[in-house]
Amino acid sequence: MNNAILIVDDELSMREFLEILLAKEGYRVSCAASGEEACSVLDREIFDLVITDIRMDTIDGIGVLRKVKEVNSETPVIIISAFATAETAVEAMKDGAYDYIPKPFDTGEFKKIVRDAIHKKTVSRDEEEDHLRKGYHFGCLVGESPEMKRIYDLIQRVASTKTNILISGASGTGKELVARAIHGQSQRQDKPFVVINCAGIPETLIESELFGHKKGAFTGASTDKAGLFEAADRGTVFFDEIGELSPAIQVKLLRVIQEKTFTRIGETKERRVDVRFISATNKNLEEEVMNGGFREDLFFRLNVIEISMPPLRERKGDLPLLAHHFLGKYSKESEKDIKKVSTYAMDILSQYPFPGNVRELENIIERSVALETSNIVLPQSLTLSDLKKVRVKEDRRRTDLGPDGIELDRVMAEIERDYILKAMEIAHGSKQRAAELLGITPDSLKYRLTKLDS
Question: Which domains are assigned to the chain?
Answer without folding.
Answer: 1-122 (3.40.50.2300), 159-308 (3.40.50.300), 408-453 (1.10.10.60)
